[in-house]
Specification:
The protein is mostly beta strands and about 210 residues long. Helix content is about 5%, strand content about 45%. β9 and β10 form a beta hairpin.
Length: about 210
């Protein structure tokens, strides 16, 4: 279960030959953070939360604190989107965010029906999607948009997972929607990681290794 305000980081070492190859081919490093619809559900990775130019050593760091907004975008792989409600509104576990029929920032309230490890998106607009943000690399970065975006009036349960995916892509951009990985990803589950730090590597043969995750 994600713990609010806990800090995490992943360090990635990439073989020099692969750095040279991928740089020439215009590949970028990509990172996504998972969100599920219930406590036992699998994490969904549907937004590219961060991209970086290729390098021998890369790092992603984040804090398990969240914000939320709404978008009227239709989900489409590879398309970059932005929330229609402007600046993200901070939200904590056991709270709900209500999106009014007008696309202005919604209201966050305590909600006893919200999950212990997540929050709820209550949509009153004709068509809207939840946009979940995480404090990533010292800024709010979108990590999730409702998969069936946009949704009609109703409620969506959102449970952030301490699970991430890293991969390489030519076309991906930060804040773009993604429905599949263009290269083989490494999925890292930090749920039971006591240090908040993980280390991974990518070798000359194009294989990932999770070196440390404790």
């Amino acid at each position: 279960m994600a713990s609010s305000n806990v800090k995490y980081s992943i360090e990635i070492s990439i073989d020099t030959a692969k750095v040279n190859q991928f740089s020439k081919q215009n590949y970028k490093f990509c990172f996504a953070s998972g969100v599920a619809g219930d406590d036992n559900g699998d994490a969904s990775f549907n937004v590219v939360a961060d991209t970086q130019e290729m390098g021998s050593v890369l790092q992603v760091s984040w804090t398990e604190k969240y914000a939320i907004g709404a978008s009227n975008s239709t989900f489409k792989n590879g398309v970059k989107f932005a929330a229609s409600t402007g600046k993200p509104v901070p939200i904590a576990f056991k709270q709900s965010y209500t999106q009014t029929p007008v696309f202005v920032p919604g209201i966050v309230n305590s909600d006893p029906s919200a999950p212990d490890s997540g929050f709820k998106f209550i949509n009153q607009a004709k068509a809207a999607s939840a946009v979940v943000y995480k404090w990533l690399n010292n800024d709010w970065s979108p990590i999730y948009i409702s998969q069936a975006a946009p949704l009609g009036p109703g409620t969506e349960t959102l449970i952030p997972k301490v699970v991430c995916a890293i991969w390489f892509s030519v076309a991906a951009e930060t804040s773009s929607m993604v429905s599949n990985f263009s290269t083989t990803p490494l999925i890292i589950d930090l749920t039971n990681n006591g240090s908040g730090k993980a280390v991974a590597s990518y070798n000359k043969d194009g294989a990932w290794t999770l070196i440390s995750n404790q």
